[in-house]
Amino acid sequence: DKFFSNKIGIPRACNFIVIGDPGVGKTTVCLDMLADAQNETGKKNKVLFISAEMNEIDMYEYMERYPKFGTVDILFLADYVDENPKLVIEQMLEEGYDLVLGDSFVEIQETIKETCYMSTSGAEKWLIDLMINHNKGKNKSNKYTTFLMIQQMTKGGVFVGSNKLKHSTTGMMEIRFSGTENSGQRYIE
Fold this sequence. Notes:
Number of helices: 6
Number of strands: 7
């Protein structure tokens, strides 16, 4: 609980970027946090997982290993590529959520760019502005939304993102794995 804040737990109205090598467990760790936040005793946290990388079949396999993930609201962007995913995301977030996980920032951005015929910077600006507006509680429920956004890294381990994204970010969490598959440890910095 003290990982994100001295006030215990994930703070409201913030944006965190989650980075790490492919397969290190970014999505799994973040979904675990999301499900725990939703099921926290005495609180009614409303959470959402926006996936631009998985579909229902992928999620089914996750839920076989981690049944609690099945309680989380999920928006699979692949289901809306023939429609307007930008509008779908806006309408979904308008309900008001306490915590939203996006997997991944760049894939959501690219989906919006391609389907809505926007430039890369235009799609990024739209997504960052959307996050900031929801940080400020601009939704039907007046919820001050926190976003966890998984983001890509280069092969050299460098964060991929514009200065605008960096300046709109409260904190960055890197998930690492050391050792071999059979005798390694996963840790967070």
